[in-house]
Amino acid sequence: MNARIALVLVVLLVVLGGGALLVREQSASRGAAGSAALGQPLLKGLKAAEVAAIAIRGPKGALTIERKGERWAIAERDGFAADFDRVREFVIKAIALKVGQSEAIGDQDRARLQLDASGTAVEFRGADGKPLARLIAGRKYFKSEPENPDKAAGDGRYVALPGEEKRMFLIADPLAQASPNTADWISRQGFAAEKVKSLEVRAPEGAAPGSSWRIERAGDNADWKLAGGGEKLELTKANAAAYALSLIELADVAPKGVKPEDTGLARPTLVEATTFDGLRYALRVGKLEGENYYATLSIAGEAKPEGKDAAERLKKIAERLPRERALAGHVLLIPKSKLDDTLKPRSELLARKDDAKK
Fold it and tell me: Coil, helix or strand for 123?
C-alpha cells in the first residue's frame, strides 16, 4: 500500500466517523428534546379565567363558543346557549393535558396522523380576541386497534402545536369534545309544559284521517275527556301524551336561515297545550331528520298558578320561562322519542272495545 492510498483511507475514515458522530449527536438531541417534554403541560400558561372564546375548525365544519356574561353561546347558531358544564369541563381538561410522548415527524406522518389540514384545530381566545393557546387534534390513539375506530372512544390522541409542526405529541385523553358539531355543545334544556289542562294535535291539510284530536280535563287530577266524540280514552295513553311535554330536551339546533320547505315547517303539525298555570305552549313540528323532528316553539300567556303551592310554582316558572321563551327564535331539533306519545293518531288513544264496555 503506497502513501497516497493510505492517505485516502485515513480521510474516508475521518469523514465516515464524523458523519456517524453527527448522526448520533442529532439523534441524541432529538431524543433529549422529546424526553424533556414528557409530563409537561401541553398548553403552557393557559388559564381558565382568561378564556373568553373557543374556536373549533374541522374539515366538515366550524364552531365558535363565546362567553356572554355568565353564559356561553354558539356564534354560528345566532347566540344559542351552550352547555356551561361542557364548556367548563373542556377548558379544565385542556389545561390539565400532559405530554405523554413527543417525536419528530415528517410530512407523510403528519398526514397519516391527521395533524395537517385534515385535523381539528382548536383555539382558545382571550377577551380581546387574541389566541391564548392552540392545538391541532389528529387521529385517536388506541392501545389495541378496535373494530370501528371512528366510533370507539380511544385511549389518547395525537396532537400538534403551532410552530412545532414537525413534532408529534401524544396525550392520554381522546379529546372527544374537540368537535365542531353543535349537538356536542348546545344546552339540551328545552321546555316544560306542566299541569296541562288541554292538549290538541292538529295535523296539516291532507294528513291521514284521525291524525288530529283534542283532549281536556277539568282539574289537575281529573280524568281526560276526548273532544268531539263519545269514545272512551285509554287514560294511560292520554296521560303519556300530555306528560311527555313536561320535560322536552333538545338534540340540536338548526343553522340560522334554514328554509321552512327543507324542514317541513311550511306545513307543520301543530301541538298546542294550555296549562292550569295560565300558559299556552304552541309547538310546530316539521319533518324527521334522522331521529329528530324539526320544530319551533312559542309561549303565550302569563303565569298565574293557583292552589296552596302557587307561590312556589310561580318562582319555579319565573326561573325557567325566560330561557324557554328565548327558544322561539330558533329552529329546534327534538328527539323523536320525546314526541312519540304526543303525536299518536286519535285511534291509538282510545280504549280497547272490551275495556270501553266496562
Answer: strand
